[in-house]
Amino acid sequence: MKVTEYFDKAKGETLVSFEVLPPLKGGSMKTIFDMLDPLMEFKPPFIDVTYHREEYVYNRQDTGFYEKVAIRKRPGTVGICAAIMHRYGVDAVPHLICGGFTREETENALIDLNFLNIKNVLALRGDARRFEDKFVPEKDGHIYALDLVGQVSDMNKGKYLDKGIENGAHTDFCIGIAGYPEKHFESPNFELDLEYTKEKINAGASYIVTQMFFDNKKYFEYVDKCKAAGINVPIVPGLKPITRKYQLNSIPRKFFINFPEELVKEVQKVKKSEFVKEIGIEWSIQQCKELKQRGVPCLHFYTMGDWETSKKIIKAVM
After folding, report:
1. Residue 56: CATH number of its domain
2. Which of 5, 13, 19, 54 is catalytic?
3. CA-to-CA distance for 36 and 307, rounded, in angstroms?
4. DSSP letter string over 237-250?
5. What is the mean pLDDT of the segment spanning 265-275?
């Protein structure tokens, strides 16, 4: 079932969904199941599974020189999606990224997903490689998420890269994209960021999942600006509570977002990490209560391997 169909079926009721990371290479599905099992009581209609591009490492050789090697530290996105659907009967939403894929590799991945009856994808550009100051696409890969959305949309129309394919099978993917209540850090201004978002909607995207935020005002303003720009698809708030004091610096540095002054002051007052977690959970509970009251389609939790925190928040809200 498509993500947007779940929203329509809910008829205004706020749903709950989760995002999980594949385990590090050498890990097992048990880590995913151990995290998701306690969350199934909330009946998530779908679960996102992230995709991580390759990273470069330098291995020292016997000659003293270093060899540059590309490795994927968190492989298995498609397999995890299939395992989740088989175990729980819940739809899985694999992330598709531009980085690390050629257009043909993307097409082949979409064919695999279609054969597995996976009906949803989240199309993202993806981050730059570690230690690179800007995003570098694969040769013959997509530079922008807009191009990736276009390729998925083309396959929904039966159009493949090989122009010799006639009467190609029509896929039926529901395409999600990312949204940025505090603006994508590479966009020169908010207006242009919204223009890019609208282009992706016009290209075939059906819903938006936002980057995490800690000030609901930012989300509501973002929704209003989207509507004013003619963007009328469901906008799902992405949520992650602060649980450690160091995150006051690491989250803004990595995700280019701001913390509300009140939250920062509360966290700075305490010295023990467990108290920071309590503050973060309570802050997120109040966020979720307000979002639910305002009728958001879904509360989407970035679990980052921590199911207990998400469960405490949802128990207090739903």
Report:
1. 3.20.20.220
2. 19
3. 7
4. PEE----STTHHHH
5. 87
